[in-house]
Amino acid sequence: MVEMLISVALGQVLSLLICGIGLTSKYLSEDFHANTPVFQSFLNYILLFLVYTTTLAVRQGEENLLAILRRRWWKYMILGLIDLEANYLVVKAYQYTTLTSIQLLDCFVIPVVILLSWFFLLIRYKAVHFIGIVVCILGMGCMAGADVLVGRHQGAGENKLVGDLLVLGGATLYGISNVWEEYIIRTLSRVEFLGMIGLFGAFFSGIQLAIMEHKELLKVPWDWQIGLLYVGFSACMFGLYSFMPVVIKKTSATSVNLSLLTADLYSLFCGLFLFHYKFSGLYLLSFFTILIGLVLYSSTSTYIAQDPRVYKQFRNPSGPVVDLPTTAQVEPSVTYTSLGQETEEEPHVRVA
Predict the structure, then answer these.
(1) What are phi and psi of 142, to 5 degrees?
(2) Which of 189, 196, 224, 280 is most buried, by CB atoms within 10 Å?
(3) Phi-psi region of 189 (alpha: psi -120 to 50; beta: other; left: phi over 0)
(4) Confidence of residue 306 (pLDDT cuts 50, 70, 90)
(5) How far apart are CA 66 and CA 56, in angstroms?
(6) 19 closest CA partner among 343, 263, 337
(7) How far apart are CA 37 and CA 170, in angstroms?
(8) CA-to-CA distance for 36 and 256, rounded, in angstroms?
(9) Is 142 left (phi over 0), alpha (psi -120 to 50) or beta?
(10) CB of 352 closer than 8 Å to CB of 301
(11) Mean of the per-residue pLDDT values for the chain?
(12) What pLDDT band is residue 90 in, cutting at 50, 70 and 90?
């Protein structure tokens, strides 16, 4: 029970960081007319580069930056592009479609993560997991309904179809990025993932910034307030990227995305005081419905449909295959939970 509550609480920390990202972005775009989503992403990637890429650069042996680039540079290049464009597409969608549509369609990331985890990470779910997922999505639907009832600002909605397609595209890329992230941190390391994302993210966002947003930057009325907002945004985004791999390794990409559904509600609760949003009891109902869904999902561990020997080879594809002791018969299904104690070298697994 304690471990389950810890996993739920860790997810809510990520939601609070996203709330901070959303609030600073709102102030920048609406109060100061600074529409610079690529520049904001660029600042985050630069921070990741300075902290994690330089860490890889000073390491020795196979964990050195150059050694990693020689083996997997093209994979991280693709991942960096996916991560950058996922952020860009969802932010761009706000110019075309309504806030309610974005909130609902952004949930598309959940089935994407489930399917990719099933086929590529070989994760298997139980009935209680699907019940928890459905309850979480119902909570999101309740929040969207409350937005309509209180007449909360819905966004431009000038070309709704284009905006909806942008959200679906961004959600799909988010799902791919999250599952790829889980694969890397379970088989390689968190620092490698963040270092390579910082390297290629900074490179590609810098190019996109120079092409698409250099004129917008010149229009920004720079002063100390805007500077603080950019610093606050970058700090929250850097914290999100740095902490998310820790939570994914302790739970899963699916669990993290379910937890992030509460981020819009935290932003709303802050908006009640900062932007004088109207309140509805449905918001509280939505919040507790999502939390109930998270508790249901976290109450039972998922399992990996493969032999432990295969998983060890999967973790060390370039090394020799290490045979496990054969004192007991090993079944081809491995149940695992990452809520307990883990070592950095091996995932926490137990034979079903």
Answers:
(1) -65, -40
(2) 196
(3) beta
(4) low
(5) 9
(6) 263
(7) 14
(8) 27
(9) alpha
(10) no
(11) 82
(12) confident
Average pLDDT (163-192) is 92
pTM over 0.90: no
Give the confidence band of 309 by pLDDT, cuts at 50, 70, 90.
very low
CB 241 within 8 A of CB 48: yes
Using CA atoms, how far apart are residues 164 and 98, in angstroms rounded to an integer? Answer: 9
Best CA proximity match to 15, nearest among 101, 100, 111, 136: 136
Could you count the other beta carbons within 10 Å of the beta carbon of residue 231? 12
Read off the amino acid at residue 169: G
> Would you state the pLDDT for residue 144?
81
Looking at residue 82, its pLDDT comes to 95
Token digits of residue 348: 């926490």
Per the CB < 8 A criterion, the answer to whether 267 and 294 are in contact is no
Give the residue, 301 or 151, on which the prediction is more confident. 301
Strand boundaries in the chain, DSSP class E:
123-124, 303-304, 334-336, 349-351
